[in-house]
Amino acid sequence: MATTHKQIAAPPERVWAVLADPDNYAHWVVGSRDVRDADPTFPAEGASFGHTFAFGPIDLRDETEVVESDAPRRLVLHVKARPLGRGTVELDLAAVGDGTHVTMHEGPASPVARLFYNPLMDLVLHGRNVEALRRLAALVEGRHPEPQTSRNAGHDAGDGEDGPAVGPER
Q1: Which candidate, 8, 15, 4, places its Cα nearest to that of 101?
Q2: CA-to-CA distance for 158 and 146, rounded, in angstroms?
Q3: Is 65 helix (H, G, I), strand (E, B) or coil?
Q4: What is the pLDDT of residues 89-127, one digit of tens each?
Q5: What does the pLDDT read at residue 159?
Q6: Beta strands of 9-82 (E only): which ranges?
Q7: CA distance 73 to 79
Q8: Taken in order 26, 27, 28, 29, is the CA torsion positive or negative?
Q9: Cα–Cα distance between 60 and 148 in angstroms, integer?
Q10: Which residues does residue 147 pair with via DSSP β-bridges, in sequence order?
Q11: 2-140 carries CATH number 3.30.530.20
Q12: Among 28-32, 89-93, 143-147, which is the least confidently predicted range?
């Protein structure tokens, strides 16, 4: 399982607020292109959101489901990216001074994903998650505009007053 750490200059409640809004995942999760729909109870256990994940030139449509939710300390997600398999992402938040120490664990959760999981894949996931947590920190700390997704298109984001809306990065 790949483990990645990041110190964020905001309290856990603020980090949790960003994690609790499914539209934000299109911004900070590397490879996530769009959030199409979400349960209104997200991030309650059992709630999910539909997303589009880019795998090279191919867009995969699937969903992410909440397995465990303990605001503002812990969020565990079951991520589906079929046919590539399924994974588990654990996000642990700990208050440190005025900020939050985020620990992210990610690993395979299906037989197909376990078949391809090895030390090299662990390094790839870790590198991807270093970038993901950098993006999360930028969003939490207000250093990046709200992402444009199909769920919020035409609403507050990108009204032209503060410049164009920025879409999810890959």
Answers
A1: 8
A2: 9
A3: strand
A4: 999 999 999 999 999 999 998 887 888 888 888 899 999
A5: 36
A6: 32-38, 48-55, 58-70, 74-80
A7: 19
A8: positive
A9: 19
A10: 166
A11: yes
A12: 143-147
DSSP type of residue 127: H
Amino acid letter, residue 79: V
Residue 129 identity (one-letter amino acid)? N
Q: What are phi and psi of 144, to 5 degrees?
A: -145, 135
User: How many residues does the structure list for the chain?
Assistant: 170
Q: Look up residue 144 and give its two tokens.
A: 């990046």
Instruction: Give yes or no for a contact between 43 and 66, defined as CB atoms under 8 angstroms apart.
Output: yes
What is the structure's pLDDT at 19? 98
Query: Which tokens go with 146?
Result: 């709200």
In percent, the amount of the chain with pLDDT more than 70 equals 84
Beta bridge partners of 32: 53
Q: What is the DSSP string of 82-111?
A: TTS-EEEEEEEEEEETTEEEEEEEEEE-SH
List of residues 6+ apart from 82 with CB closer than 8 A: 60, 62
Q: Cβ atoms within 10 A of the Cβ of 6, count? A: 18
Q: Where are the domains of the chain?
A: 2-140
In 3D space, the residue among 130, 69, 23 whose CA is nearest the CA of residue 77 turns out to be 69
pTM given for the model: 0.82
140, 24 in Cβ contact below 8 A?
no
Tokens of 44: 């309650």
